[in-house]
Amino acid sequence: MKSAPLKSAPPLSAELKTLWQMARGAADGASHAERLERFYRPQAGHYDRFRERLLHGRGEMIGLLAPPDGAVVVELGAGTGRNAGYFGERLAHFETIELVDLCPALLEQARLRWADEPRVRIIEADATHYRPAKPADRVYFSYALTMMPQWRQALDNALDMLKPGGLLGVVDFDLPRGDHLAERCACEFWRRWFAHDGVHLDSAHIEQLQALTEPVTLRESSAGVPYLPGLRMPYYIYVGRKPAIPAR
After folding, report:
1. CA 4 → CA 49, 54, 109, distances in Å?
2. How far apart are CA 218 and CA 238, in angstroms?
3. Measured CA distances, 155 to 4, 145, 159 (Å)
4. Does the model's pTM come out above 0.70?
């Protein structure tokens, strides 16, 4: 199962446009949806090219979800729909996979990518209250929680739409651990660096995930950042199971 190839700008041009938009920082707007649209509209057509080298662990997290045949799968904060491609041939055995996002510019790219796959539904909606028609077997966030101002509500909503025993997956940016000066300085650097583009790192994400679900996997790692040699960006992969009796 392959997604449709998307036309993109030449590599150098695409990189420069993306870097320029990131350097300008998060856009202004009356609502979170407006801010997303203003920030991503200029770079939507070449969004994935740069992020392939920035957003690590996505394929690994999706591989851990292992949805059963006939599964209902939901991605909250799906953007261009790139992550669904990590399911590969397994996607053909799902009932549906619903890609939910607030940003029309990125969803346009998702519709182009998955135009020939009827199992993929592209939905413009808020992750804090969207619900699929049927309870989901798997729900996941890929570098999306850190961009959601109401991330706790988004997690609660994800858990509510899951079947008991269903899996919740998250891969996202993390913060360095430890109380030494080096770790504290690194935390402050990454907080400021990401906040410039509307990404808000919070160590409470993992704590909340562990409180809401039965932990299956937690992996914390780091990887290089494009154009910032020598720096390692922390990220984590989490998979948890919805308990039969809700934890909250």
Report:
1. 15, 22, 10
2. 5
3. 30, 8, 6
4. yes
Say if strands 72-76 and 96-101 run parallel, antiparallel, or are unpaired.
Answer: parallel
- CA dist 245 and 235 (Å) reads 30
Residue 79, pLDDT > 70, answer yes
Helix and strand element counts for the chain (H, E) = 8, 7
Residue type, 185: C
Q: Is 162 exposed, middle or buried (0-12, 13-18, 19+ CB in 10 A)?
A: buried
Q: Cα–Cα distance between 23 and 17 in angstroms, integer?
A: 10
Tokens standing for residue 46: 């070449």
For the record, the structure tokens of 172 come out as 């996202």
Give residue limits of the domains in the chain.
11-173+202-241
CATH code assigned to 11-173+202-241 = 3.40.50.150
Looking at this protein, which amino acid is placed at residue 172?
D
What letter would DSSP give residue 44?
G
Pairing mode, strands 72-76 and 136-142: parallel
Q: How far apart are the first and last CA of the chain?
A: 38
CB 225 within 8 A of CB 233: yes
pLDDT in tens, 170-216: 999 998 776 656 666 767 777 776 776 678 888 899 999 999 999 99
pLDDT per residue over 227-242, tens digit each?
A: 667 778 889 999 999 9
CA distance 224 to 171: 16
Please provide the size of the chain in residues.
248
Q: What tokens were used for 129?
A: 């209250």
